[in-house]
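hiii so um. not sure if this is the right channel but i have a protein structure encoded as tokens and i wanna go backwards to a sequence. like what aa goes where. can anyone help
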């Protein structure tokens, strides 16, 4: 499983993800009431979170392709391949699936998002991005 991994492309996406997550954390208030009142800043939080999740899945797709882990039919297949080949720890798979679900809510139900639920998800799961980044960096170092 060594060689041929687009290390630079992955690291750029990790950096873009981290910058967006930092912006979300910087502007995420301490209460759901405050979050609901944010207006356009809240929209920015949703968009930056969406962008971060897209970077996560882009990185997973790059790893799956570069490591020749098989042609996936779905994002779920990519996650399964990465866990099966010990690129990602099994525990992170559920976090990534939940991220994808959150992204789909943001993208497809934008006007009808439950801000209270979104706020609680963001507060609890924002660190999942850091966990993912550490997993990917650990893997990149192992194949360097």
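sure thing!! here u go:
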């Amino acid at each position: 499983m060594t060689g041929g991994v687009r290390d630079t492309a992955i690291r750029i996406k990790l950096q873009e993800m981290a910058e967006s997550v930092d912006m979300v954390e910087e502007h995420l208030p301490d209460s759901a009431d405050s979050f609901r009142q944010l207006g356009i800043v809240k929209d920015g939080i949703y968009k930056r979170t969406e962008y971060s999740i897209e970077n996560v899945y882009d990185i997973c797709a790059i790893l799956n392709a570069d490591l020749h882990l098989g042609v996936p039919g779905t994002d779920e297949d990519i996650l399964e391949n990465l866990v099966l080949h010990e690129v990602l720890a099994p525990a992170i798979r559920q976090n990534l699936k939940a991220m994808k679900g959150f992204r789909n809510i943001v993208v497809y139900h934008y006007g009808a998002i439950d801000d209270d639920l979104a706020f609680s998800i963001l507060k609890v799961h924002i660190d999942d991005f850091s966990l993912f980044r550490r997993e990917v960096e650990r893997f990149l170092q192992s194949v360097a």
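oh and Residues 7-143 form a domain with the Four Helix Bundle (Hemerythrin (Met), subunit A) fold (CATH 1.20.120.580).
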